[in-house]
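A note from the maintainers: we've had questions about how concatenated examples are separated. There is no special marker in the raw files; a new sequence line simply starts the next protein. For clarity in this README we add a label.
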Amino acid sequence: MEKPDLQLLYFTYRPKDVYPDVAIALYLLATVVLIVQIVRQKAQFWLYILPATAFAEALGYVFRELCVRKTTFTLYVLMTLFLLLPPNAMALVNYKTVGKIIEQSPARSRSFFLRSRFVNWFYFTSDILSIALQGAGGGLMTSRTNREHGKKIVLVGLAIQLFFFACFLVTSFYVWAKSSYSVAMSSSDSSPLWAKRKVLFTVVATTVLLYLRSIYRIIEFADGYGGTIYSAEWAFYAFDTLIIYLAFIVYMAVPLGSHFVRAKTMPTEGAEEAAPLQFPMEPKNY
């Protein structure tokens, strides 16, 4: 009995071998640039999530390139998971950024949903839930018998993600508009207002890009295995590969690390911690 063509079985088309190579090079470049920026800026360690995510994306395209050459079930599962899940970690960085702004600013909101602990807990939990559902559904979709169940689970995970992205954008715009919230200035900032605009622009722009990518993924999975969107290789590279890389370009062009540096301590024994970074208040009317 003739063995089935696994490439056509899983992809439903013949994927081209040049695109994964280009994606690998671009994402590895982003990994190196982000690491260099974070080290030079002495940024807080949670920002290393960004180069780790870029590296995970590169691995996803390594598995895709291997699948192009010889498709196997294991390689296809690894490719699916590494290309589906890592971008969710970028949302964690944005959640942490806004949580830090709220935590380090002089303003203290009476509303529980604008407290840093709630922002971190609420959005982190939503993202972990979304990652878990997408991972479980993506794994099930590699099985022909469980494909429909896997698709539904992934769609639920993506829908949850879209809802919380929308909530987070509302929170981000509120923090942006409220003059009582401020951001630490970097050496290149002309004013506290400019520093805040840079950081919140990065957060909002990348969140919108992640939102668009999630919409594409919902349409792809809703269209079904073998559907028009699923079978269009150009759509994957345009609405997933390119959109995610545009988000990394924003992170590299407007780095967050210079605004969230590690706390310094005095080198002498028994000395107290150096004074924390000062966050100048912005003018109230702008």
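[label: protein 2]
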Amino acid sequence: MIRVLGLGDNVVDKYIDSKIMYPGGNALNFAVYANMIGIKASYLGIFGDDEAGSHVYQTTKALGITVDHCRYDKGENGYAKVTLEDGDRVFVGSNKGGVSAKHPMVLSDVDLAYISEFDIVHTSCFSYIEKELGKLRKFGKFISMDFSNRYTREYLQACCQHIDCASISCSDMKDHDIIQLMKDMMAYGCKEMVIATRGSRGALVCVGDTFYEQSPCLIEATDTMGAGDSFITAFLTGYISDMKHGVNFRKESGDKGITNIEDYRDLVIKANLYRAAIFSSKVCTCNGAFGFGKRYKE
């Protein structure tokens, strides 16, 4: 079984209409969703010492996700303010990362040795980890970074050279523009793939020079919070796990059935895109990114 690490941001999503906050954040969501799928998952990030930070920390521990290497700083945990419009989450404000932004993580030698144990390390543009990407590249087996819809060309060029997989959210873009951007990101140095989520239009994935399209599993959503994160998590964990298993099986058994690794990769990608669409749709039936709501006061 593979092991994965969510590295960077955690927040609470404060739903201003119901006055309920839910744990979330791109890097933490990755660890939680991997855990839901049955993958051994850990999280490394910074918690604030307020009620929000305590709620996220306690929830993460209760889910069985390892948090042994996390930091705890005095100040506000990251939060985002959210409303729902017909089940679609809409962000209306934030404290821009809270303690994670005020005290960006600096990876120690102990952290890097720990990171080297994982098959996937996933981070994001909300994690304030950009200055550490060079270090991360030297120790991470497979590095994934989600840029959401917060990027410039210069930012992508600076980051993509250090990562294996880049993800972007681009539901408002036309497909031909998305495809060109994905090609550019590969040219910027992204080692293996780019994932583009397009909301109700599904996803596009570029692996090398090959593009794949996955339609969504359409449902009546309770809350679309985490839809893209869950899709990316399910696809990446399935892809890396299946590729590792297939290559190892061939080496150990001498099996000649897998005669062409590219054909095998193609099947793995298609199967896991389908699984990811189904998993993402299920996530949209719960409140918040993965539930565990708690009332808050302003």
